[in-house]
Amino acid sequence: MPEARPHHISSAVIAAKPGCLDSILAALAGFENVEVHGADKGKIVVVIEGPSTGVLGDTLMRISLIDGVIAANMVFEQIYTEEDEADGQRTDAA
């Protein structure tokens, strides 16, 4: 049986300079492992996925370098493996 690989999911909040929200959202659309879940009043909430904490951290660092980003902060991280799923459903879900 192959070894179960961990999968990391993180949420982050991005603070945008005034007038930069649309350009930051456009840049985020180019990130393969980032999904925007909300944007309002200079704040953007995203989910980042990847195979390791390092990949998530690297992605967050690249986000922080987007022109117009004031700050990009990780809020939550969860790690799960294929073992945590049964019949395609996460076993730890509420």
Short description:
The chain has 94 residues and is an alpha+beta fold. The protein has helices at residues 21-28, 53-64, and strands at 6-16, 34-40, 43-50, 69-81, 85-86, 89-90.
Task: Write a structural description.
By secondary structure, this protein is α+β, with helices and mostly antiparallel strands. It has a domain at 1-37 and 58-84. Helix content is 21%, strand content 46%. The chain has helices spanning 21-28, 53-64; strands at residues 6-16, 34-40, 43-50, 69-81, 85-86, 89-90. A hairpin with a 2-residue loop joins strand 2 (34-40) and strand 3 (43-50). The chain is elongated and about 50 Å long. The two termini are 28 Å apart. 14% of the residues are buried. The mean pLDDT is 88.
